[in-house]
Prior knowledge:
single chain; alpha/beta; 31% helix; six-stranded mixed beta sheet
Amino acid sequence: MTNPSERIPATIITGFLGAGKTTIIRHILENANGRKIALIVNEFGDTGFDGGLLSDCGSPACGEEDIVELSNGCICCTVADDFLPAMEGLLARGQALDHIVIETSGLALPQPLVKAFAWPAVRDRVTVDGVVTVVDAEAVAAGRMASDEAKLVAQREADQSLDHDDPIEELFEDQLRCADLIILSKSDLVDEAGMLRVEKRVGEDKRVAASLIRATHGIVPPEVLLGVGAGAEDDSETRLSHHEMEGEEHEHDDFDSFSIAVTASDKAEAEARITKALAMPGVLRIKGRLAIDGKKVPLVVQAVGQRLESWFDRGNGESSGEPKLVVIGLSDVDRAAVTEALGG
């Protein structure tokens, strides 16, 4: 086997929808300090918003050619069909990569992904430098696992094959149990007493060897995230999920996603439409870009639960194609009603 120091380090970043994974990765790229980084982004839907947001960050660390988007469902359920071919494709390019960063979907278990690195075509060339779990500190401080736990619970409970008292909590615990580094995001929105509650809750399930840090606005130095040196593929038996411990197959609820081209007269109107659509039954998340009358650049949107963030794209928008919003929801979401609410 190749010496670990000669293999390309890979970092797996996981966490619930809206926890702040993409923001953290963008900060890594903007402060790469000369590193050449490739990204594998696990997206839902036919429009790769997260990949576009990352490639448009303006950093030479990662361009469009270095981003691989997987949109055929949760990465932990499509390891053989999607992830491994994507990894093999990256390695076949012959590029001199300093690091590979993998962003999982919000409902992914990291454990199957770690085990995938034992695949012969990958193991000799890549090592899992570390598994990073991003936790929404504001949500956990309030007694929830995510910014809108009710919608996540609804998504999980839609699958009648699952038989757990609290499956969302189990998924949260599984993401903690696999981590080498746990990032408590949005810590600026929580007072010190709240942060101590969050750290106590996370400490109940984190591995002893895992580090715990607080983050504000997704700012975590790349030197902290990259270079952990965990070699996680070699101790996957210490990172078991609930499913593995109970001898069950891992399954997901049915979900749906679709994209809509939207134009609004101004930012306020756009946010009002998105807030209305986000409150509709079955809608879990809305993200992407939309056109604003009179503006040369699109409005970027990230919305989950009751949290809506928007800003005008810093780039020229050309690399992202036609501005579109991506709606992620349960399989029975009323597409027509959501489309009408968004004005698409």
